[in-house]
Amino acid sequence: METVSMLLSTHQPLRSISLPTRIHPSSQRVEALLNHFKPQNPFQSISRTLCFEADTIQSDLVVLAELYNCMEELLHSQQTQQDLLHHHNGKLVEYSLDVSVTLLDACSSSRELLLNLREHFQTIQSAIRRRRGGNASSSIESSIYEYDCFRKNAKKEISKQLCEMKRTGNKVKVSSIMGQDQNMIFLARVLIEASIITISIFRSLLLFISLPRLRTTKASSFISKLNPSKLFSSENEQKETDFASFLRVLETMNDSICGLEGGLGCIFRCLVRNRVSFLNMLAH
C-alpha cells in the first residue's frame, strides 16, 4: 500500500505532454482528460488518496471512462497501431496487455466487494425494520456479525489487490520504453499516465471499502453505533432515534455503492475494449 502511494507521489509533478504532429485528433481530448487528474498545486497528490468520499471516487470513474473511450479512438488510428507495433517489436503493446490483466482483476474484485457490501447493508436494514418482533435483537446482532466477518475477509482480498497493483505500478518505467520519436513519446506517456491514474482510483476505492470507520453526519462512529448491546440497552425513545439514524446512514451508503458499481461497470467494459484493441494489434 505504501509502495503504491510512494510511486504516485514520486511521479509528481506530471510532465506536460507535447502533441506530436502526426496523431489522431482525439489526442487533444486525451491530454485534457489527463490534465484533469494532475495536481492543482505542487503539494497536491495526483491520486488524492486522502479523500475517500464515494462521490469523489464516482466522479473520477466517470472522467476515467471518458479517458479510455478517447484512448480507444486513438488506438484505432492506423498510424498509432503502426507506431506501437514497430516500437521495440511491440514492447509497449506487451506492457499494456500485462497491465490490463491487473486492472481487470482489480476492477472485477472491487465490483464483487461492493455487491457484497451492499447486500450486507440491505440485510441490516431489513433486520432493523423488522425490529418489532421478539427476536429483533438476535436478528440485528446476527446480521451485524455477518457484516463484520465479511469486512475481515474483504480486507484480505483488498490487500491482495493492492499488492498486485503495487507490483504493476513498479513496472512503470518511462525511460525503458520511450524512444526519440515524438509520436511514441506521446503514446507512451498516455498509456503510462492512464495506468497510473487507474491504479490510483482503484486504490482509493479499495481503501474506501476497507475503512474501519464510516462517519455519520453527527460525527459518531458508524461501526460502533451498530452495536446491538448498546442499542437494546437504550431507552425506547433514544433507541428509535438511533434506529432511524442507522437507516438513513445505510440508505445513503447503498446509494453511494450503487453509483460506484455503475461507474466500475463502465470502467470494466472500457478495460475489456482496451485489451481487445491491443490483442487485435498483435493478431495482425
UniProtKB/TrEMBL annotation:
InterPro entries: BPS1_pln. The lineage of its organism: Eukaryota, Viridiplantae, Streptophyta, Embryophyta, Tracheophyta. It comes from Vicia faba. This is Uncharacterized protein. Keywords: Membrane, Transmembrane, Transmembrane helix. The chain crosses the membrane at residues 186-209. GO terms for biological process: root development; shoot system development. PANTHER family: OS06G0725500 PROTEIN, SELECTION_UPKEEP OF INTRAEPITHELIAL T-CELLS PROTEIN. It comes from the Eukaryota.
